[in-house]
Amino acid sequence: MHRMVVFLVLLAVKSMEALQVNYESRGTVDTNVGNGKGSGNGMNIYRVGNGSACIVWNYDVYGADTSKTRTRELADLLAQKGTQVTSMNRS
After folding, report:
1. Where are the domains of the chain?
2. Which of 6, 29, 35, 87 has the maximum number of C-beta atoms within 10 A of its C-beta?
């Protein structure tokens, strides 16, 4: 538990740093998942890392797929600690 608290504090500090404009994410994006109707209204799911634990990471007010957000950067940071991280965004 103590390690998780320390990690969350480090994550909060990381989120206060300047946004990297040219950040290249490390994961993959599965597009149009879960609709089943073929109309293009499914979800885009960003996946990174692997492990027995999975974190469902939510995006900020700007959405998951814009240059104004660090959603994927922080998901990649969490994945470096040995977890799988997924982040969903409406397509």
Report:
1. 25-90
2. 87
Furthest CA-CA distance within the chain: 46
Here the tokens at position 23 are 């950040």
Closest CA to 45 of 35, 63, 31: 31
The pair of structure tokens assigned to 4 is 């998780």
What does pTM read for this prediction?
0.69
Which two three-digit tokens encode residue 61?
Answer: 């007010």
What does the pLDDT look like over 10-44, one tens digit per residue? 666 566 566 666 778 899 988 877 766 655 567 88
- Show the tokens assigned to 52: 């027995």
Residue with tokens 């660090």: 70
What's at 82, amino acid-wise? G
The answer to whether the CB of 74 falls within 8 A of the CB of 11 is: yes
